[in-house]
Amino acid sequence: xxxxxxxxxxxxxxxxxxxxxxxxxxxxxxxxxxxxxxxxxxxxxxxxxxxxxxxxxxxxxxxxxxxxxxxxxxxxxxxxxxxxxxxxxxxxxxxxxxxxxxxxxxxxxxxxxxxxxxxxxxxxxxxxxxxxxxxxxxxxxxxxxxxxxxxxxxxxxxxxxxxxxxxxxxxxxxxxxxxxxxxxxxxxxxxxxxxxxxxxxxxxxxxxxxxxxxxxxxxxxxxxxxxxxxxxxxxxxxxxxxxxxxxxxxxxxxxxxxxxxxxxxxxxxxxxxxxxxxxxxxxxxxxxxxxxxxxxxxxxxxxxxxxxxxxxxxxxxxxxxxxxxxxxxxxxxxxxxxxxxxxxxxxxxxxxxxxxxxxxxxxxxxxxxxxxxxxxxxxxxxxxxxxxxxxxxxxxxxxxxxxxxxxxxxxxxxxxx
Length: 417
What we know:
This protein is mostly helical. It has 17 helices and two strands. The chain has helices spanning 11-14, 18-46, 51-79, 81-104, 109-117, 125-138, 149-177, 182-200, 217-226, 230-233, 235-264, 270-291, 298-313, 322-350, 356-384, 387-407, 409-414; strands at residues 4-5, 292-293. It has a two-stranded antiparallel sheet. The longest helix has 30 residues, at 235-264. The two termini are 19 Å apart. The relative contact order is 0.17.
């Protein structure tokens, strides 16, 4: 049975005018969120630090995000975005300011570690936007013309790709052409502006603890505060966390390997070009995926997209030149967005509406945790073996993604996912 193509799927999204403000705000926030790891690696290597040192600093950022960000999102679900987002953002941006100052002074590695630890307080813009959309759809505030959540998550996936396309590329370009800290500085300014726009869009903010309007907000908020972390209570979130861990690991290794191989080839400008190409292709396929109405269950869609993305990135061990880098990057990019869209949709099915911010943050934290492994591993491999060996490591970690999806199929089927 072949999936149907709904050519009008995005029309209902474009009609939700109140969503424009928070999506613009979250897009600006994403620009910085997506440049944090690869932007840090580029900034530090161009400032004279080794790839290993840059990978270690990037890994500390990722670990801090993994440890702190889900707790921040749990507070957001319980107390509201307006109360928590500005405080957490201010702490995270203070850490960024400290990092930029220390890099300008060519400070030792230990001081950089101290500065980046508080960057983990950064609220997750992807989760904030998806929580608002889920709230609007589930509370029926959009009426009978409300878009499906698969379409919403595809739409948000396109915005993710726009952020990923321009964030790292702009960061690397500014670091190359202006000064090593210029890219990350621009990202921090964009994030602060995005937070201000998001907080002004009060009409779309989820009521803390409210689940589809079935109970009063106060009662739901008290119930939510009594609950443990969603990752402890929901096995599906743990499965998605594990899958996203390897997605983050292989993609951050891929990113760092691109920076290394183009430097070896004497074509540093090629890095931003390849990353923009990958994001453009991913954005197109993510948009097209939102038009499809597949006749498969969520678990089967997850298995299919994991097999396609993991299998294509698993071929990265064949990269050894600029042409092979471009060809295999282009093929792999076609399946990256559908995997992330399916993972987010599966997460939404597995948790109550009032816990969606924390749940999505956890699966993003899995990716972030993987990004803690990727730069460190690739930095060690690249420094001691060479850039092409970084792509070998990328391939091994990519193949773990479909393996996890396959092994966990019985559990997901038993929970009607």
